[in-house]
């Protein structure tokens, strides 16, 4: 069997267009565009690329991009004060503090300070709790993007067996919560799981977010499984996912490539979350 390749790049472009199509009516009603504030501390080259792309795509969707670049040596108090100002600014609907932060700064403290209603990353514990409780929440962008790809591919997910590999607050935990809310039977595996093939053998859905290059082998998969690869690992052979693509593609029913799968979904969902935050704040 040769798996269908899930085109995240095309899905993300379509989602960005759908988001952009709602902006003129928002502007008509409110006299302003939805605003996304992005805070970048320091000069980490990968983070600088992400932030540049976010700014470009935010503007392309007709939204306001408010960028704050702080020196790598900025003190916690100054960063906290900026978050306080953005929380109070009525033209700011979404706040994203680019991670990782330099080691002298406490990311948890910053995340806790962001107004949960402006937390378009969905990292605030209030939003994690809302998601876990089935209440309206800002949902982290990458797992929500994975869910959109899965529903597009499979339709109703109810009753499916899903294995999420990885237990981070950013991907694994919210992914498991989202799949549980869609009535999947969810197993959360991780780097210490003793017999991963045992769990994967029955999985209709596999989401790999463990951060280890080519960790998941195709022979472990249930034939016809849908495989979502969140990994972005830079190796000597170039960019690879957490899934060994070639062996997995010969076993799976559908699979996301790296690059061009989950990656482009993150910013598209960020724009969607910003629009949702703007609509909620409006009324
Ligand atoms: N760094 C890499 N991806 C992300 C993201 O989605 N949000 C934030 N805040 N930082 C990141």
Write up this protein.
With 283 residues, this protein is of the alpha/beta class. It folds into two domains: 31-117, Leucine Dehydrogenase, chain A, domain 1 (Rossmann fold); 141-263, 3-Layer(aba) Sandwich (Rossmann fold). 43% of the residues lie in helices and 16% in strands. The strands form three sheets. The protein has a six-stranded parallel β-sheet. Helix 1 runs parallel beside helix 10, helix 6 packs across helix 7 (172-181) and helix 6 packs across helix 10. The structure holds guanine. Guanine (GUN) binds next to strand 4. Catalyzes the oxidation of 5,10-methylenetetrahydrofolate to 5,10-methenyltetrahydrofolate and then the hydrolysis of 5,10-methenyltetrahydrofolate to 10-formyltetrahydrofolate. Belongs to the tetrahydrofolate dehydrogenase/cyclohydrolase family. Keywords: Amino-acid biosynthesis, Histidine biosynthesis, Hydrolase, Methionine biosynthesis, Multifunctional enzyme, NADP, One-carbon metabolism, Oxidoreductase, Purine biosynthesis. NADP(+) binds at residues 166-168, 232. It holds the Pfam family THF_DHG_CYH_C.
């Amino acid at each position: 069997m040769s798996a269908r390749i899930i085109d995240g790049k095309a899905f993300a472009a379509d989602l960005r267009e759908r988001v952009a199509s709602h902006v003129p009516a928002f502007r008509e009603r409110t006299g302003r565009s939805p605003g996304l504030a992005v805070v970048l501390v320091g000069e980490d080259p990968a983070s600088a690329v992400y932030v540049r792309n976010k700014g470009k795509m935010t503007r392309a969707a007709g939204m306001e991009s408010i960028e704050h670049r702080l020196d790598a040596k900025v003190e916690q108090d100054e960063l906290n004060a900026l978050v306080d100002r953005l929380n109070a600014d009525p033209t700011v609907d979404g706040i994203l503090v680019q991670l990782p932060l330099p080691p002298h700064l406490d990311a948890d403290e910053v995340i806790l300070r962001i107004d949960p209603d402006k937390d378009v990353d969905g990292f605030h514990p209030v939003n994690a709790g809302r998601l876990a409780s089935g209440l309206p929440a800002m949902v982290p962008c990458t797992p929500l993007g994975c869910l959109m790809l899965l529903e597009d591919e499979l339709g109703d997910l109810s009753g499916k067996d899903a294995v999420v590999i990885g237990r981070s607050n950013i991907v694994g935990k919210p992914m498991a919560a989202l799949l549980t809310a869609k009535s999947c039977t969810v197993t959360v595996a991780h780097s210490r799981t003793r017999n991963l093939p045992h769990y994967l053998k029955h999985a209709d859905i596999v989401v790999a977010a463990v951060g280890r290059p080519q960790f998941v082998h195709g022979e472990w998969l249930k034939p016809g499984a849908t495989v979502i690869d969140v990994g972005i690992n830079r190796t000597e052979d170039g960019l690879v996912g957490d899934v060994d693509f070639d062996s997995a593609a010969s076993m799976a029913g559908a699979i996301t490539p790296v690059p061009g799968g989950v990656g482009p979904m993150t910013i598209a969902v960020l724009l969607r979350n910003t629009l949702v935050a703007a609509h909620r704040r409006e009324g």
